[in-house]
Amino acid sequence: MVNVKTPALGALLSALLCTPAVALAEDADFSGQVRALLNNYTSNSASPLAIANQLAPGLSNKNTLLGVVETELRASGKGITAVATLQGQMNDGGRTQATAWLNELYGSLGDGAWQFSAGKKTIAWDVGYGFRPNDVVAQEKRRSLISTTVIGKPLASLEYFNSNTSVSMVWVNPGHAATTDVADEQALAARIYHHNGGVDLHGFGRYGQKSGGSLGAAASWVATDEMEVHGSLRFMQRNTGLRMNADTPLLQRNSPWQNNTQNNVVQAMLGANYTTESQHSFFIEAWWDGTALSDRDWQNWNKRNLTLQGSVNYLPQMQQVIGYNLAWQNQALSASGNIRRKNVFARWSWQENGWQPSLDVLWTPEDNGRIVTAALGWQGDRISINGGVRFYGGPSKAILAQLPDSRTAYISATWAF
Amino acid sequence: MKTAIHIATLLLAATTGLARADEISDYLKTADQFRVGTENMQVETEITTFAKDGSKEKERNYQVFSQANHQSLVLMKSPAEKGQKVLMLGDDFWMLLPGSQRPLRITPMQKLLGDASIGDIATMSWSQDYTGKIVGEEKCNDKPCIHLSLNAVRKSVAYQRIELWLGKTRHEPIKADLYVQSEKLAKQASFVLDKPQAPTAVSEMILLDQLSSHKETRVRYLSRKQKTVPEQWLNPMFLAKNPSLE
């Protein structure tokens, strides 16, 4: 899964990699971790996917247990950095799978103030935890139950730094053909950063081959010894995401969810973090994501689900087709990074003697849906143990109550070297 | 005549006060010399935490770049924390995690998290961060010592008040009671010197937690050398790139 596709970028990387491997090995810094992980999924019998599976058996054959063993290896030296992951999986159906991928492989040159990098690299921008509208390069998935190392993107970057300001210019996915997938489109992105006392200020710009321009700003402010406040705002000229026309006939031969372009889209997030002397941390964020489906879209989605389920009574011979159409409804859940436009996230955590319990809730006020996560972590000298359980729920019409899973749980042990 | 005497008395009191402030500053500068040497230093530190029963719990290694104007950069070197960094610029702090490549702005209170907080190893200058008064002469392990009561001049230091005992002759640090903002005694520190008869530097600081865990933490200073870091190293966005800092 080495993913350096562009010839120009490949040539640049080759030049950076021309350092003899032996010399690299002598000066390289190696580290890594081995992680064993067990996941358990509880299916949601009320989800459209579960009902679709009853109508058209075999549509979804999800296992309830998944065991994973993975090793992450990091090496850096002579201006070259590499991060790779080797992973083996086995589910309760006895199916095994082994995969390996390169998270990052890039070279850097610079004299201190000016830095040039090229290769497969992660560049993470923006402030906040639950939602980062201006993370326009890495576009990291947020609030994963289990943290994983982000996979970088092919890019070339030029950056300037002094003591309190930095300017970054990034060419993402160079040479990629035009695509509707914002994550894969060729784009130019820029960030300017300045810190002035207790305030960090960020300005962002991005121009995508398909998605056009976007501008953003973010700030983080340490207001008191205990409290930090942060916010982020982004305006996009265009956004492409899955949508369905309201007048789409009930039964379709292909998925009615097709890419559609929205114009003038806004994303905004505001949050605060409060830590007490006794090491309790309270975190709250609220955000608006204009790329998510609207309240009306979700009302239509609910209505269509009910109509499809009801149609089995008068079209029993079409049961399988109805099942397929219900399964396609599931695609709406991934139409955007956020399911609902309005979101509120709150988290409590406590740190004591290497233990860290935490409890968080994501609430979607438009339909009162919620995701509740409880986790417990322990950090020893080299070993860390983590476990957690996440519940999806809310009223029956809440979208979060209709996800394919009603509960996920995990336990993991990590050994760092 | 009465007015002249009154003014003279006030002037004398003010001059004595200034002299005392200078005296305290001199004491603290000398104590700082024993702890970290001069400004712009690179200090290799090893922190070992022991449980209540005396068994070793964990060991961590840190590289600390302590620079002028309250600027410090702490690099975590142990396998469990490798790649993590904490940048402290005056009252402003950032945490950098190797996986995220995104600096995290942290509050002074978050800086205190942990058995030996980052503040214990990176807040290097008592003479710049504290002022106070001389309580008097006392006995420390049967030797004469000076008891100082210090208050922070910056709100973001790890400890808002320090009761400090220095050797009477050389002003080497002997022990300290460290109080957090709420006036609770957080830790008690004692200092081990390299040569007890003619000390030149603190080789170890022993911290006893008094707030919750009651663990013992030993901070060993493995090496000290002068180092002025490039200005980019003190930019959180530069550190987020995970550059080689050698």
Break the fold down into its secondary structure elements and pairings.
The complex is a heterodimer of chains A (417) and B (246).
Chain A: H1 7-16, H2 21-27, E1 29-43, H3 48-55, E2 65-77, E3 80-91, E4 96-110, E5 114-121, E6 153-161, E7 165-172, E8 187-196, E9 199-208, E10 212-222, E11 227-243, E12 258-275, E13 280-289, H4 295-314, H5 319-328, E14 342-350, E15 355-364, E16 369-379, E17 383-393, E18 405-416
Antiparallel strand pairs in A: 1-2, 1-18, 2-3, 3-4, 4-5, 5-6, 6-7, 7-8, 8-9, 9-10, 10-11, 11-12, 12-13, 13-14, 14-15, 15-16, 16-17, 17-18
Chain B: H1 2-36, E1 41-50, E2 56-67, E3 71-76, E4 85-89, E5 92-96, E6 104-106, H2 108-111, H3 118-122, H4 126-129, E7 130-140, E8 143-152, E9 161-167, E10 173-179, E11 185-193, E12 202-209, E13 216-226, H5 236-239
Antiparallel strand pairs in B: 1-2, 1-13, 2-3, 3-4, 4-5, 5-6, 7-8, 8-9, 9-10, 10-11, 11-12, 12-13
Structure description:
The complex is a heterodimer of chains A (417) and B (246). Chain A is mainly beta and 417 residues long. Helix content of chain A is 13%, strand content 50%. Chain A is built from five helices and 18 strands. The longest helix of chain A is centred in the last third of the chain and has 20 residues. The relative contact order of chain A is 0.14. The N terminus of chain A is likely disordered. Chain B is α+β, with helices and mostly antiparallel strands and 246 residues long. In chain B, 21% of the residues lie in helices and 42% in strands. Chain B contains five helices and 13 strands. Chain B has a 13-stranded antiparallel sheet. In chain B, a hairpin with a 5-residue loop joins strand 1 and strand 2. The model of chain B has no long low-confidence stretch (mean pLDDT 84). The chains are: A mainly beta (417), B alpha+beta (246). At the A-B interface, strand 2, strand 7 and strand 11 of A face strand 2, helix 2 and helix 5 of B.
